[in-house]
Amino acid sequence: MSELPLSEQFQSALKGVNNIVNSNLRKDSTEFSLKLEQIIHQLDNVKSSILRLALFSINETIEEIATKHIQYLSIDYYIASCLELNMDRKSRAKTLKSSQKFYLQFLHSLDNYEILDKSQSQLLEHFKDPYNPTLEELRPSDPTQRREYKIENFKQEKALNERLKIIDQVDNLDDEIVRQVYIDQLKLFALNALQSYEGNMLELEVLKNIPEPKIEEEDHPDEVLPFEYTDKLETLKSPLVSKQGRVLKPFTIVSDRNQLRSKVYGTGQVLPSMTVEELVEQELQNGGMVKPQQPQDNDEEAGDADKYHDQETYKARQWDEFKEANPKGSGNTTNRG
């Protein structure tokens, strides 16, 4: 148990919460998980100190609580919000459920001191199981009412944030103003708690339907480093293939060691070793391609055709000259009647 005063324990824990929320670390990293675990442990110590000092009772009202003690009513809210940050897949569902319990405990504490507004108080009374409400009990089923509910919450949140701008000046403010600032902060946390609770319920429904990954045991007779390599099967001391047929060690079979060595400083890809013309010539010689037939020379045929046409033209001209020289009937002069 820490020997620091409760106020210093509380402020130290809040500083840790602020740092982890604004951290640039990956939420699924080991470093983040360790820091988060330390902060949750700090908050748990603060809660233990509050319970040990018996600062709150269900038989008293908010007016009976000292102003400096009102802020400690938020301890369950801080624990719940930090539990939400745990992103470990194996324990995600479990931590979300724990977070839900702290959120509800925080809301019921505020309801006991009549800090919640009327609609929030009625919402808690509507739960059949005070610490295990259903999603239907948490929000209106009608989409229009649900939208109006969210709009109203947004307006309240905006107004509370506006009033809480002076929270850093509480040491210089009047006691009544400080008291109201702490109460307004609790009201803002109540809005956030209800929204977070609803979001967690939806996530839990998704996680419930995700099958757990199956871990298959594989046969590893000897540890094989990913960079181990050999170019001769004779040099292998451990099996190449497991009983299940899995390749345990990569290997390459080559006919010439120089062939393998030549690839070390290569381009990383197979380059062409001959030109297109050389490939075509090789295919023609091997019978892989057939040389296309060249079209026959038709000059001779064309000459014969031209000669034939010239002869026909000459004969036609001779016949025309003969007919002009010998008109029809000119040769029959003896048998005219």
TrEMBL record:
It comes from the Eukaryota. It holds the Pfam family TAP42. GO terms for cellular component: cytosol; protein phosphatase type 2A complex. Residues 304-326 have a biased composition (Basic and acidic residues). GO terms for biological process: positive regulation of transcription by RNA polymerase I; regulation of dephosphorylation; regulation of TORC1 signaling. Residues 286-337 are annotated as: Disordered. GO terms for molecular function: protein phosphatase 2A binding. This is Essential protein involved in the TOR signaling pathway. It comes from Komagataella phaffii (strain GS115 / ATCC 20864) (Yeast).
